[in-house]
Structure formats: C-alpha cells, structure tokens
Amino acid sequence: MTVAEFFGCGLIAFGPSLAMFGLTIATDPIRTIMLVASAFFWLLALLFSSILYTAVVQLQDYLAFGVVFSVLFQELFRFLWFLLIQKAEGGLKKVSDGNMQIVENKHILAYVSGLGFGMISGAFSLVNVLADMTGPGTIGMKGDPKNFFIASAVTSLAFILLHVFWGILFFNALHRRAYLQLAYVILCHMLASCITLMNPIYSVTIPTIWILTILSGVLAFIVAGGSHRTIQSAFRGRPQVLQVNADATGNFTQVGGM
Amino acid sequence: MNVERLPNERKLAICRKYFMAGFALLPFMWAVNAIWFLKEAFWATPYPEQKQIRKYVIVSGIGAIVWLVGLISWVIIFQQNRSNWGATADYLSFIIPKGIP
Amino acid sequence: MASKVTGRQATLLRVLVLSGTFFLAAGERVKNKIYDEIQGDMACFKRFNGTHEIGCTSKFFGNTGVLHVIEEKADFDWVYEHGPHQPYVLAFTPLFLTEAVLERATDSGKVSGVVVVVPEDFDPETQLLDGFSGETECPDAYLGLYNASSNPDYAGYCRKKPWNPNGTSMLYTSWEFPIFLITNQTSVNNIQNCFEKFNKPVNGMPRDWPLCSLELKSNMYGTTNSEVCMRRASIGPLSTDNFCDPLYDYNIWGTLKPMNMSEEIPEKSVIIVAARMDAATMFDNISPGANSAVSGIITLMSAAAAIFKHKEEIINVSNKNILFILFQGETWGYIGSSRVVWDMEQGQFPYKVKDDVKDQIAQINLTHIDYFIELEQVGQPEDINKLYIHTDPISNANPELKNETDNLLNILDEASNLVNETKFVRVRKDVPLPPSSIQSFLKHVNISGVVITDHEGEFKNPYYESFLDNYRNVKYEADNETSDADLYHKHINNVASVLATAIYKLATNTHKKITADPELTNELLFCYMKNMTCNLVQEYGGEMAKHLEPKPAKLYVSVESGERYRSYVTMYLMAGLLGDEVERNQSDCKIESIYNMNHFYYFSHLHNGTCVQTTVRMTEAMSPAFLIDDYDWKSGEYSTWTESGWKLTKVMIFLRPSVLEEVAVVCGGVVSLVLSVIVVHFMNSRADLLFGLSTPPAAC
C-alpha cells in the first residue's frame, strides 16, 4: 500500500540529485567516472569508520562517538580524493578527448566529487528506511513521530546538497590554501551531523540543517564565481561580458556547479 | 550486419535462408526476417531481387503473425481451462502454480 | 542490499554511515518500529480428502484489513452496516466462533480475516454454554462401519441421535479468509490496546486514519482435493514442492511377550487393548485432546504397566498374548487402525518376512485376534463411578460371537466388582458403536470387542476436537507431577485397574485384583495435559524429549515431515513401561534390525543410563489409500486426508496511513523532482553567466 510513501520520500530525497546527475553528469563520461570514483572514496571512509567502530567495543553505545569519527573519516577521504585527482590531472587531460573544460575549471571536478559523496551518503542513509516503507504499514503505532519518513527524506536531501557544497568549498580552499574555509567545511559537517543526534526533535534539527545548507550553498556559489550581479545577468539571459565560445546549444560552454 | 551494404544476391540468399528456417517451427525466424528486410522489400530503390525478397518478407510476416495469434490464443485457452482439464493440464504444465486450483 | 542488513550490521550502518543519520532509536530497524509480529503459529490451514478441501488460506502476500475487536454482538452490525474502512480483520473470543458468525462474515464481503483471541480470563465453562466442537455431529461416520451401503439399519442412527451434538462441522468447512488462534497474552493485549488507541469507534462514529491493521499470512500451496494435489506433487520437474502430503505418523504398540516367527501364534490368542493417539483442531500447533485422546492413552499406559508387573505369571499359565496399541490418525478416518487391518490382510503386519534376520518378529493376522478392548473418551463420566460399554449389534447377531462377547462383558463386570471403584454399564444392544477404531476391524473380520467410554449416548465432552478440550475441560487439577489431591487421576487410575484386572482374567482365566500405580498415572497425565517437559518425560522420553516445549502434548497426527516428538516420546515411555532392564551399555543398547522381535531402548537420564529390552515399536500409520495403485479417491473405503504444504504463517500488527497522506507524499516527491529539474537546467544552461566565466576561478 505504501509503495506511495516509498516513491514519494524517494523522490523528495533524490529528486534534486537525480536532476543534477541527469542534466550535468550523465552527458559526459569523464564526469560520470569521477562521480563514481569519488563515491567509492566515500565508501572507503565508511569502511574505515566501521572498522574503528567494531574495534572500539566500549564506545559502541555512544552514537556521538561514531558520528564524530565518521565525519572526520569522510573529510579525510575527501582530502585523499583531492590529492589523487591532483596527481591524476595529467592523465585526465589525456583521456578527456580534447574537452579541456573539466581540467581548466576546477569547480567542475569539485562539484562532481561533492555530488558523488552526497549521492552515496544519501543512498546509505535512506535506503534502509526506504526499503522498510514498501510494506503495508506506516510508522506511529509505538508512539514514534508520524512524520519520521518525511523528516528522514528532507534531512537526507539536505545532506546530499551539503555534500555538493562542501565539495566545492573544500577543493577551493585547498587550491587557494584558504584554511579558514577548510575549517568551515569540517565544522559545518560536524555540526550538521551532531545536530541529528537530537532527532526526533525535528522542529530543531531540520531548520538548523537547512540553515547550514543554505549558508553553505551561498558560500559555494560565491566561491564558484557567482554574485547577485551574475544572477541578474543570468535572468536577463544575455551575456554581459563577451563570451568567445558561446554557441547556440550551450554545449561548449557548459559548466557544472551550482 | 548492415543489410543495405550487401550485394543484392546476398540479400536474397539471406532472406530465403531465414524464410526456410522458419518452417522448422521457428516463427521467430520469420519475425526477424520480416522486420529486418522490411525496408529492403518496400522502400529501397528497386532492384531485380527485390520482388522475391518482398514475397518472402510478406509470407514470413504473415506466418509470424499467425504463429503469434495461435500462441496467444493457446495461452488464453489453456489458462482459462487449466483447472477444468484436470490431470491433462497438469501433465502439460512445466510449473504448476501453488495454491491455485 | 540494504534490506538484508540486519541486527548488528544495521546498527553499524546507522551509526556510522551517516552523518545524515536520523536516529530513531539506536540500532533498531525501522521495520520493527512499524510492525509488531504477534503470535502467528496457530493458523487454520488447509486439508484435503478425495473430494473436498477444508480449512483456510490467505492470499499469496497475506490478507490485510483494519482491525475491529468484537466485544458484543452489535459490533458485528456496526462493521457490516457502518464500517467505512473495509476490508476488516475481526478479532473476537471463542464466544463468537460459530458457523453463523463466520458465514455472515463471508457473505458481507467486508471481512478479510479473523483472529480468535483467548484472553486469560476467558472461562469456557461459564461463557460457552453450548459447548464447542469443530467436529461433525457424527465424527468419522463416512469411513466407519455403519454407512448406508453396508448397514441400512444402523446407518441413520447417528443422524437421529448424534454422538456429538455440539458438533459444528467448522473443522470441515472451507473458509474464504485466514483464521488465526491467538492465546499468547502479550499478543492478545497488543491487539486490544492497538484497537482502543486507534480504531475503537467513538459514539458509533468511525475513527480517522491512520488505523490499526493486521496482516495475516498463511498461504496454502494445495488446492481442490487430495487427488489433484497428490498428482501435482508427483509430476513436474520441480516436484519437491509440497502441494500436499498424506497425514502420517506411527502406531505405537508392544506385546506382553515377544513373538518369534519360529513359534506359531495360536488362533485367537492375541488380546488387543487399543486407544486413540491423536486429536485435532482447526488450528496448527494446538491439539490438546484431553478427553478425546489423553484419557484413553493414559488409561492404556497405566493398565499396561500394571499388567506387565505380572508378566511371568501370565506367560507361565497361558498361551495368550496381549497387544497394547495406540492408533494414530483415527480422527481423520481411522488411518492407524485401517492401516493395521490392511497390513494384516496383506500378511505384512508388522513387516513382510525377511529371509536373513534371526529372531524375527512373527506376523500377526486377523485370525490371531482374540478380544478387542478399546478405550475411547473415558475422562468425563457424569457419575464418577460409571463408565459405559458399547458393543456392535451387527457382528453380535452371530450367536457364537455373542457368547464370546458376553464372556468379555461378564469378565469386565467381575473385574469392576473386584476393584470396586468404577462400575461398567452396558449400553443397549441395538445401539451401534460410537466412533472407534474397532470399526476398522469389524469392517473386515468378526471379532468380539468392546468400546469403553464415559458416555451412553451423546458425548459428555462439550469440546470434542477443539482447542478447548484441555485439562480444564476434564478438571484435571494437579499443579505438579506428585500432587495426589487431584480426583481426576484417581478416576483414570481406577479405570486402568479394572482394565488390568479384566485383562489378567482374560489371559489366565483366574481372578486377581490388579491395581494400577496412581503416582504413575498422575505423572503421565501431568505430562500430556500440562507440560511435556516433565520429569517423567525427561527420564523416560528418550533423546527426542529435549525438543518438546513446556506445553500440553500436541496430538495432531501431522505429515511425514511434520513434528513427531510426542510420538517418539510416547514410544519410549511405552518401552519403559513394557520393558525389562538389561545389562548393556549405551553402545550395545541398540537393535540389529527393526525386524527383530525385541528392541532395545537406552534411557541416558535414568540411573546414569539404563538399557531396556522390549517389544515396543512403531509402525507406519499412513492410509492404505496412498499405497494402493490406482486407488479410487472417491470410493470412501480408506481415509484420503492430506495436509496442504505452506511456507510460513505469520500475523503482523501495524498502522495504515490514509490514502490522502500517501498522495500528498507522492506529490511532494514529484514537486521536488520537477523543481530541481527546472533549477538545474537553468543553472546549467546559464552557467557561463551565473558563474562569471570571464573571470576564471583564482587558483586556475
């Protein structure tokens, strides 16, 4: 019966990432490969946090412990992934088949990596819940909050977007050696994750997480070169500055990122 | 394999082979033949072998449709009457559904 | 993948994986927050005979419905006339478990399942005044001695004066929805609480979603009748599927003295003492049969134990032998007894002759039978001192046989006078036999026999073949194995004493008062009626005893692959009662061949290990119908009952959301997708403007 809940919550959480993937990633094989590879790095982070969790038996009862170390591992592996693609830049140039855009505009790779992290973490956080939604029942019989499914989906969505923004900010910080920006990403991740420990007080957790999401989104937008003026010009639809490469289909000037 | 690039006599030979193979109770051969050579038979620029190809395509097509109709009717009839036919139907079944008469 | 992650792994995932974790409660699967699995092991299941199917099945994925607890009759009307949330799953106590209620539920088309809940304070005696029996009014009549074709004089007797007037035939009806019995108090409360919290109408007005619902899963594989499903089980490349299986168990029996094939058994020398081993209910996993089976089983065991103490005396003066037998599957068309008769006729009881086995057991055939004494329901006499003796009017029309029967009746009378506790009253001569195993024999051979019961006409047992035929029904009050305050065990012990005394006289032709052991009787009763993990079973039950639960014995006959611990345990108990201790250690205490006249049983928990030599054994109790080639399923000669196969039975309780809420969630999802497609497309196509590409990022 509640296959409806399954599809509804699934679309709420994964609709935006689906759109991003379909419109900006799937068209380019290199981006697709980079997305999958970055997702793999997130899985490595998961593996190592799991090993740590299993090893430290005494602390298994404290969720906070798991959360903190999980966040640190994720950020560590984001850094390792960054190092790897720095090294691989030469190779990337070779395989990119003349399309140098992905190498030239650093934000594209950052965005792709962030989306990779976001999609895989979103999948892991929600799939269990989604799978349990397919049956005929809904939550609430045992006094649990009735909006658990929606809240889970909305939180998942926020984290997927956060990972995209963090990806852009993190890479940019490393490129420019802006350590404050780096610290912001890690602290923001830590704060957002730890705030979920307060669930199911959704009236606190969800607004907080979404404020962080919007804040990070704005920062990422600015870092990637956006401002209120560029927004205006985008809405007017006319290039204010001369675009040498602009062509009718927009293919060539396509730039990922939000 | 792109049929269009083949010499005309090869086209005819392949079309005939598929047509003949269909008689070995292989209606799928006819279906493939009909669809694969449809363009050659009707829309390609005329050439001498085309007439024969067209004939094979039409007959293959009809044969495939007859088979399809026959199979669908049999499936419908069998499913409708399976429980009434008793033992005969059970012996004809590969997998007997559980919990259904 | 995710759906397979359970338990500890799930904890791990939930904790670690995510920074985006939504901790509902540490480490618990969301499923466990939505669903509660409640007691679902007592499902009504399907059985088949040669022409019909009976019982219940759910749909493949289970039947779901909104829970409605019926407290009074008017609640039914509310559901059928006003209830807007169909389909419903009705929950009620056995008070409402009648054919009329179930039929109306079927006809209403608003009911997708029924759960029968038995609260702790449910007292059948004060609440179920009309009794309750799933059986027909004339149990087993169709396969008995008196069907219309053979005996028109007696065929109609039961229809005029039913043996089982409380019979509803509910057991033999095919229901369109699953029915579950729930006795576990946690589950009962769970249902009640969920109903009151979410579903109970307020002033007759239905409540709003979400509503408490039940899912009943008991999908049966078999259909139509035994012929169809046995055929289907045997054909096809995937014939391992159990569409249905014949009812199957083992007759348990032993003789006073071993019968060696090398010595001829004289004609009319074997006195058979029989009782019925099985009972049935509509539901799986519960078949207490306190009066319908246990009363007879224990009387027989007690009498056998008492007689065995005088084994040497009897053997020395007499060439008679005594065969104690517990027939299995008698509820379902006399499976056990008809199989014994069939085997005897085929010259293969207990086995076909084997060429190379020493000390082989002798074949017994129908001519060897001397007397036949059967114990049916003996536990609920109206007058505690009075039991009834039934004889067959047809075979006793033969004067020779009548003489023998009169002799038997006199001996029983004398025995009851000697013991002086229980009096035996003869039932009128023109009354046919009540449902009993001897009918299987009388269909094929004229023997003199009696059936001992607690009823003259109709059954005294108001709950014949129902889950209420338990220790409460017979008022067995002992709380432990050694309590001797209870009156019931004394009654059973008296009957056993009379029986033993009579058998002694039949075998030796001398009178001697034999008294059965009341402690043993009580221990046996306690084990079968209340707790199969009792001490006696621990000591004498053999290795299978450890599989039994601390519950009353489940006496349903089941199928070949079914649960059969109680049969093994009963065989071991019989072996202990009808066996001699021998000096053998565990490794030597085993049989060389099942064809040997003596068997050896090892009791590892008895005096640090004891070996017993005995004639007790089990022989297959499956209807001959499944052994005869091209058997005509509709002939009605032998039992054709089979049981459907199934994968699981399960009951889940949960909340169901309103459709409106579901639509809203889906709409939310679609909006999320469409909005993001628009935004992403916009940003993507205007990326050059949006990110001011004329001024490339600083680091590049």
From TrEMBL, chain A:
Membrane spanning residue stretches: 6-26, 33-56, 62-84, 108-128, 148-170, 182-202, 208-226
Q: Does the keyword Membrane apply?
A: yes
Q: Keywords in UniProt for this one?
A: Membrane, Notch signaling pathway, Transmembrane, Transmembrane helix
Record's subcellular location: Membrane
One GO BP on record is:
protein processing
Answer yes or no on keyword Transferase: no
Query: According to the lineage, what is the superkingdom?
Result: Eukaryota
Single GO cellular component term: membrane
Question: Which Pfam families is this protein grouped with?
Answer: Aph-1 (PF06105)
Q: How does it sit in the membrane?
A: Multi-pass membrane protein
Give the family this protein belongs to, as stated in its UniProt record.
Belongs to the APH-1 family.
PANTHER family in the record:
GAMMA-SECRETASE SUBUNIT APH-1 (PTHR12889)
Q: Protein name, please?
A: Anterior pharynx defective 1
Q: Which gene encodes it?
A: APH-1
Automatic annotation (TrEMBL), chain B:
Annotated membrane topology: Multi-pass membrane protein
Q: What is this protein called?
A: Gamma-secretase subunit PEN-2
- Native organism: Penaeus vannamei (Whiteleg shrimp)
Q: Which family does it belong to?
A: Belongs to the PEN-2 family.
Q: Which InterPro entries does the record cross-reference, listed alphabetically?
A: Gamma_Secretase_Asp_P_PEN2
The record lists the lineage as: Eukaryota, Metazoa, Ecdysozoa, Arthropoda, Crustacea
| Localization (cell) | Membrane
Keywords recorded for this protein, A-Z:
Membrane, Notch signaling pathway, Transmembrane, Transmembrane helix
Report any one BP term from Gene Ontology. Notch signaling pathway
Looking at the record's lineage, which domain of life comes first?
Eukaryota
Residues annotated as transmembrane: 18-38, 58-78
Q: Might you report a single GO cellular component term?
A: gamma-secretase complex
Q: Which gene encodes it?
A: PSE2
- Pfam families xref list: PEN-2
From TrEMBL, chain C:
What are its GO cellular component terms?
A: plasma membrane
Record keyword Glycoprotein present: yes
User: Transmembrane residues, as ranges?
Assistant: 663-683
Question: Hey, what's the signal peptide range on this chain?
Answer: 1-27
The listed locations are: Membrane
Which keywords fit this entry according to its UniProt record? Answer: Glycoprotein, Membrane, Notch signaling pathway, Signal, Transmembrane, Transmembrane helix
Going by the entry's taxonomy, the superkingdom of the source organism is recorded as Eukaryota
**The keyword Lipid metabolism appears for this protein:** no
Could you tell me which residue ranges the Nicastrin small lobe domain spans?
A: 43-221
Membrane topology per the entry is: Single-pass type I membrane protein
Pfam family, any one: Ncstrn_small
Q: Which family does it belong to?
A: Belongs to the nicastrin family.
Name of the protein described by the UniProt record: Nicastrin
Q: What is the organism field in this record?
A: Penaeus vannamei
Write the lineage as a comma-separated list: Eukaryota, Metazoa, Ecdysozoa, Arthropoda, Crustacea
